[in-house]
Design goal:
Blueprint: E1 2-7, E2 14-20, E3 50-51, E4 61-62, E5 66-67, H1 71-77, H2 102-109, E6 116-119, E7 124-125, E8 135-137, H3 162-165, H4 176-180, E9 192-196, E10 201-206, E11 209-211, E12 214-217, E13 219-224, H5 252-257, E14 264-268, E15 297-300, H6 311-322, E16 325-330, E17 335-338, H7 348-351, E18 359-362
Parallel strand pairs: 6-17, 7-9, 8-12, 14-16
Antiparallel strand pairs: 1-2, 3-4, 5-7, 9-10, 10-13, 11-12, 14-17, 15-16, 15-18
């Protein structure tokens, strides 16, 4: 079971919601479910979804939308460059200096609190000719990128499917369309993420909801995966920090590969009324300098022993030592994001052995400030 966070006002304080219930995986289409090292070889089993070779830095053309939790998606993602190499998400921070107020900030967040993992952020891969549809955006239209957008009919909503299937309750009978239409709660964050890997475009939505008259959302952002360009200062995104979500999520293909090559997304219940690039927006009234800013970078200490953990957790922890994590939204303390992929084993309890005191806040050297 995961807990979602609703912002009563994305310019102000977070409001914690009830735990987001889970439901079973009820798909409109069947997909191959190959786990472990076989996943990347399953491209040959899913040719109806793909055409063209999988070359370095290039992706096979898509014929129809496919979900993130498939072997076809693994094959495409394994060759997709997500932002330039010098992008903040792709920049190692293992040699960055520790911030002067690191210890005070860790204590303010919660040194004794455990590391958590939200299986929340799924996404769809769409072909370059995917039909674009209007999405009615309100109330953050003035900080949104204009449409139309390539939202497919089978677009997944935050948490679908694994965050549903791994919990109990009456919501187990919900279908994907039920979830698209606002069940179990219209007040949840309901992030929707669409990736066009051929055109290297990323579309992200806050509170994406399907209605009889079409799609609606509270906010819509478009990111160019070939560019380091940030959103304008003061603008939000589907995350409160103005950051993209997709580049920061732990994926199945990365765990199969054995390496995560980017920073992770993390949330905290109390953040400061400030941001540091690459973030462009804050969502707090609090001014305590010991609270983290949106975009703050934290790193798992280099002397933390990762050898005692399972393979999947070890891969995640090594990434936190090398690339760290960035504060992206208000939410559960020390919660990083993973795709809600049923092929990924449950690691929640194992992650809880890692504590806030095992982290440190780092600051970018003067010669490695984020590119604009």
């Amino acid at each position: 079971m995961i807990k979602l966070v609703r912002l009563a006002d994305r310019h102000h304080d977070p409001v914690l919601m009830n735990p987001f219930p889970a439901s079973p995986l009820q798909r409109a289409k069947s997909d191959p479910k190959l786990g472990g090292p076989l996943a990347l070889f399953a491209l040959f089993l899913v040719q109806p979804a793909l055409t063209g070779p999988l070359a370095h830095g290039a992706e096979p053309a898509l014929r129809h939308p496919i979900s993130f939790d498939t072997a076809a998606a693994d094959a495409i993602l394994s060759g997709l460059s997500v932002f330039p190499p010098d992008n903040p998400w792709n920049t190692p921070v293992d040699d960055w200096p520790v911030a002067a107020n690191s210890q005070a900030m860790i204590e303010a967040i919660g040194a004794d609190k455990p590391l958590r993992c939200n299986t929340d952020m799924g996404f769809m891969l769409v072909p370059p000719d995917q039909a674009k549809v209007p999405v009615t955006v309100s109330p953050y239209a003035d900080e949104s990128d204009p449409g139309p957008y390539p939202v497919p009919e089978n677009a997944v909503i935050e948490g679908w499917p694994a965050a549903f299937t791994r919990a109990s309750g009456p919501e187990k009978r919900l279908t994907l369309e039920d979830v698209q239409r606002g069940k179990p709660s219209l007040d949840a964050d309901r992030h929707g993420i669409i990736v066009d890997p051929v055109n290297r475009k990323l579309y992200e939505f806050y509170r994406l909801t399907r209605t009889d008259s079409g799609w609606i959302a509270a906010q819509a952002s478009i990111f160019d995966l070939a560019s380091n360009r940030l959103r304008p200062d003061g603008w939000t995104s589907s995350d409160a920090a103005g950051l993209p979500i997709f580049p920061a999520v732990v994926r199945h293909d990365e765990l199969v590969r054995g390496e995560i090559r980017h920073a992770l997304r993390v949330t905290f219940s109390r953040t400061r009324r400030a941001f540091v690039h690459p973030a462009t927006h804050f969502a707090s009234r609090l001014t305590d300098e010991h609270l983290p800013r949106m975009g703050e970078r934290l790193r798992l200490r280099q002397d933390f022993d990762v050898s005692k953990f399972s393979r999947e957790v070890r891969i995640l922890l090594v990434a936190l030592q090398k690339y760290g994590m960035m504060v992206a939204d208000n939410g559960i303390d020390w919660a990083v994001s993973m795709t809600p992929d049923e092929r990924i084993p449950v690691i929640h309890e194992e992650l809880r052995k890692v504590r806030g005191s095992d982290f440190e806040v780092v600051t970018a050297p003067a010669d490695r400030l984020p590119p604009r």
